Amino acid sequence: MTTPDNTSDAPAEQTGVAAQDWATASADPQYRAALVDLLGALAYGELAAFERLAEDAKLAPTLADKAELAKMASAEFHHFERLRNRLTEIGEEPTQAMEPFVAALDGFHKQTAPSDWLEGLVKAYVGDSIASDFYREVAARLDSDTRELVLAVLDDTGHAGFAVEKVRAAIDADPRVGGRLALWARRLMGEALSQSQRVVADRDALSTMLVGGVADGFDLAEVGRMFSRITEAHTKRMAALGLAA
Amino acid sequence: MTTPDNTSDAPAEQTGVAAQDWATASADPQYRAALVDLLGALAYGELAAFERLAEDAKLAPTLADKAELAKMASAEFHHFERLRNRLTEIGEEPTQAMEPFVAALDGFHKQTAPSDWLEGLVKAYVGDSIASDFYREVAARLDSDTRELVLAVLDDTGHAGFAVEKVRAAIDADPRVGGRLALWARRLMGEALSQSQRVVADRDALSTMLVGGVADGFDLAEVGRMFSRITEAHTKRMAALGLAA
């Protein structure tokens, strides 16, 4: 996994909530609402990722490749389980918390169904990497208990590493493949941004929390900066992979 | 999970190999060949089950139901991992060991794609149960190391229990559903038997081992009795579920 080089422009200071545990932080109903949203979005994101990776495993040219994608799918399922269990622990109905994010995530996957194995690999890698970046971005804004959970899930990502080698080999063998996959990677990122913006627009409490604190209210520019950092990290990764984005 | 009532006619004595560990037992090349076949068949069976359960999860009417089927799929993937790792440990190429069983297992799943959620549940339950019965039948014929692995995998089945309750509720709500699902369960078993017989006919070493020992040669009648025991257990389970088989 490539670590995104976003240390320079990421906010270094932690907001007050980062020093609190869940019991303290969740006394603020707005923080609580934002967290339920976040856990619901992440949980459904992982469940949908499970489903799509399992589906894309069908495109695998060999049994060993199929097993690799199935392994990623299974890892996503375990992430889902942890997030769902946390929702239950804090007294929320997981289905209800996930429901608001079904349309955006299903929309993303519907718009980005890979048409072949290489597209599936690029999607697995891009998806895994963006998810890592987002988990890392969001971790700093969370109470200590939720942060621990999010970092634990993050720690278990990076299953897509196998994809890099295979994509590189395919581009070496036929450089035209690189052009097609670069377009594909751009489409993945575009669709991810467009669905994220839909969520940002719909879910005020979540969006406000994501941009660092309730006090200052909703800061669209800061959401934009977070998206930029993630996009930039994506662009660097694609370049490293031999895909000019 | 219902335990099949096959204590009366199952062979009670263990063959000589059951007292041996893998190192000793595998010195016999015919036993070794049979075991590589068995592990290959079980491994691909689990991988294919993963893939189909993940696919059938799409039919789920609720997110909670989808998560239940995804959980089963993920459990099957972990079974696959253990069996594949064992193949690697004993110096075999997992893909090569699985290859001979792809056609039969894919054939089974192709012929039994559920057309709705209830059919998917019945298939998950029937598949899980038949697999348990088969693992239990075969365990007694294995060297101590392989037996331990097979029993460990078996111990982790039974994820389909949730299906029973839902199928029963559906039949209570509309008894005609029972007739349709009874037909479906019969078709599942028929297709499973037909694909198994194809494997038995193709893979001599495996078949000979399955019926208890290399010494007496291939005993088709004993294979038949094993299939009968499994079919009988299936029939009892279906009756308990309210499906007259």
From TrEMBL, chains A, B:
Stretches for region Disordered: 1-21
Pfam family, one: MiaE_2
Domain Ferritin-like: 29-213
Domain of life: Bacteria
Protein name as catalogued: Ferritin-like fold-containing protein
